[in-house]
Specification:
Aminodeoxychorismate lyase; binds pyridoxal-5'-phosphate; six-stranded antiparallel sheet; D-amino Acid Aminotransferase, Chain A, domain 1; globular; D-amino Acid Aminotransferase, Chain A, domain 2; single chain; alpha+beta; Aminotrans_IV
Length: 291
């Protein structure tokens, strides 16, 4: 069961709402145009991970849409209320905590904002254990479009995820589990809901690589936290540009994100890529240190 808590000036700790009843106006621009921003974060033992990073990224997504962003001091009590209510219903099960902010009902001129807490889908554990068959799909933009065309909102986490979901359905129809988008000029970008990370181990030197943000990808909070933790353990870090050959030649490729954490890629377009249990365990342990 999903727990809903709306941000509401009359309720300083947020207003709990019934997720089985209609709660949103049918004219809400989040629903009619996907005009809004969101975040998904993982909560373990009643504690939401990387809240500061998620609120910071959401604020910058909101700024890109010229959307007023409620202060962290308004979100935080609502998150706490949602997690307390979730614990009352689900005990100490981990939760997906979503923060949603839309432009609000047409003509109202005030945003709608709420927190949703729900159980973590079982598929996330399976994908971490079994790994992913991935397709490379062309996103159709070149890797310099983000700066040239800021209205595309590349790099913002908007509610317009229909394209990302369509790419995942396309992969599933073609026997794969997930997608790595490429740019029209052949650069590796990101997954529809994840950041791409690869590892190269040479002469005992371990390097983690990820595509550069300038290519129009979302700045991943998990990637950023993993890189900071890995650097402390002596890993070298690198930021693109990457091409599919780099993925094929790597010692390991992962899709990483806040909920699924770190899932190894086992094939790309039907060609096997090495899956290292040792590297996966080492990086997964580093991700677990990120609270
Ligand atoms: N890239 C995209 C497009 C995403 O939707 C997500 C998360 O949903 C990520 C990357 C990973 O971001 P994070 O690690 O902050 O969850």
């Amino acid at each position: 069961m999903t727990v809903l808590v709306f941000l509401d000036p009359a309720y300083p700790a947020g207003r709990i709402a019934d997720a089985s009843k209609p709660q949103l106006m049918a004219t809400d621009l989040g629903a009619t145009r996907g005009d809004g921003v969101f975040e998904s974060m993982l909560a373990v033992d009643g504690h939401a991970r990387k809240v500061g990073m998620h609120l910071e990224r959401m604020a910058s997504s909101a700024a890109a849409l010229q959307l007023d962003f409620p202060a962290p001091q308004v979100w935080e009590p609502a998150i706490a209320t949602a997690l307390a209510e979730f614990a009352r219903v689900h005990g100490n099960a981990p939760a997906v905590v979503k923060l949603m902010l839309t432009r609000g009902p047409e003509g109202a001129g005030s945003p709608t904002a709420w927190v949703a807490a729900s159980p973590v889908p079982e598929s996330t554990g399976r994908q971490r254990e079994e790994g992913l068959d991935v397709l490379l799909l062309d996103r159709g933009y070149d890797s310099s479009v983000a700066e040239r065309a800021p209205w595309l909102l590349l790099g913002s986490k908007t509610l317009s995820y229909a394209v990302n979901m369509a790419a995942l359905r396309f992969a599933k129809q073609h026997g794969a589990d997930d997608v790595i988008f490429t740019s029209s000029d052949g650069k590796v970008l990101e997954g529809p809901t994840s950041t791409v990370v690869l590892a190269v181990v040479e002469d005992g030197v371990k390097t983690l690589l990820t595509p550069e943000l300038e290519s129009g990808i979302l700045p991943g909070t998990t990637q950023s936290a993993l890189f900071a933790a890995a650097e402390k353990e002596g890993w070298q870090l690198g930021y693109g540009p990457l091409e599919p050959t780099h993925l094929m030649q790597a010692d390991g490729v992962w899709l990483i994100s806040s909920i699924r954490l770190l899932a190894p890629v086992k094939s790309i377009d039907g060609s096997p890529v090495p899956v290292s249990r040792e590297l996966t365990d080492e990086l997964a342990a580093l991700v677990e240190t990120v609270l």
